[in-house]
Fold this sequence. Notes:
With 321 residues, the protein is an alpha+beta fold.
Amino acid sequence: MEDFRIGDYxxxxxxxxxxxxxxxxxxxxxxxxxxxxxxSKVISALNTLWIEDPSLSFSINSYSDELEISLxxxxxxxxxxxxxxxxxxxxxxxxxxxTVYKERPVKKVNKIIQIEVxxxxxxxxxxxxxxxxPLGTGLQIESDISYGYLNHSFQNAVFEGIRISCQSGLHGxxxxxxxxxxxxxxxxxxxxxxxxxxxxxxxVFRLALQQSGVDILEPMLCFELQIPQVASSKAITDLQxxxxxxxDISCNNEWCxxxxxxxxxTSKDYASEVxxxxxxxxxxxxxxxxxxxxxxxxxxxxxxxxxxxxxFMFQKSxxxx
Length: 321
């Protein structure tokens, strides 16, 4: 029983858990110990906190080697910082908190890389079709290839390659709300292996995504703002600057209640601003409400494939056709 963690269960999944919806964090930050030699101590401490609370998500960026923590908000950052110092005696510094965007293909495209056609070094032919889906749909994977022709281990390798590919799009963000169809395959028995298909898939996916182009999706918040009536003009001006969609305003002689949607990126510090300009009387309550195509600027995430020589060769060969 000592290996059980929060969220684990015995037998069938309880109906109460089935009804729960989980929102992934939409913010992230790099964390560094004040003393560089305590990096391993920070990782061990975060792992302990993760065992206690599996919603805590952290990882080591394989490109920059930075320790990154996913966050729900500024309060969580402060709590983690305090826990690390008080429980584990290690002081850390959080870098700028960044919004986590996503990517979605713009249009339906097909891409194929043929076996024994340079620069393809793998014993595999793979064709993929990418097409955008409605916002919030997530990733769907289908196969037009018969299992009688290409068995499960080979096709599962392609599916795994697709999921890995979706972790980092053209701008380094997760690719979502799309359907990927495995449309063409060829192999040479006995030299072809599932590894050939797994390793080739990300290149086919990347080239297809470049052909399609992507929309950048930003996280949205549903908000309720309650403020003194005298502060309503400032509040509405602020909301307009934050590119919010105001859905309802109701006011009386003393209070105003405003509801709507607002981009997380423009509003992540607004709760403290409301408290300041209303002298603690105002309340800005938010909850996640999906993603939409961004209307504002965005920052790229670190791209993992920029120094991939084989990708460059594939891109060059495709441009010559």
